[in-house]
Amino acid sequence: MPKPKVLKVDVPAGAAAQPPASFEALANLGPRSSQFLLTAGITSFEQLQRLGAVKAYAWVKRVEPKASLNLLWALEGALSGMHWRDVAREHRTSLLLALECCQE
């Protein structure tokens, strides 16, 4: 499976990189996505990173059946620094295969 591109952010010398205060501060995620994550029990950016986009999406889908695959693309984009549309175009197949394995 090809690795997604990661955007690098320049942090001023001496400054520690801080995780976002809320999911909505992440690219691609809005209030509804944030609520889905919280409802699924995913309460921090660190937890989202540990789970990864596929597992986090599977957790959300169990409690929020209306969540669409756009959330999966958005989660992967939030973690990798890519726009969700680029994720959907470039990594759709690998993410869907990983999701299928995760749900078995």
Keywords:
mainly alpha, DNA polymerase, domain 1, disordered N terminus, 4 helices, 104 residues
What's the architecture, going by CATH?
Orthogonal Bundle
Mean pLDDT: 81
Proportion of β residues? under 5%
State the share of residues found in helices, binned by percent: 55-70%
CATH superfamily: 5' to 3' exonuclease, C-terminal subdomain
Describe this structure in words.
The protein is mainly α and 104 residues long. The protein has a single domain (27-103), classed as Orthogonal Bundle (DNA polymerase, domain 1). It has helices at 31-39, 45-63, 69-80, 84-103.
Provide a compact summary of the structure.
With 104 residues, this protein is an all-alpha fold. The protein has helices at residues 31-39, 45-63, 69-80, 84-103. It has one domain (27-103): DNA polymerase, domain 1 (Orthogonal Bundle), CATH 1.10.150.
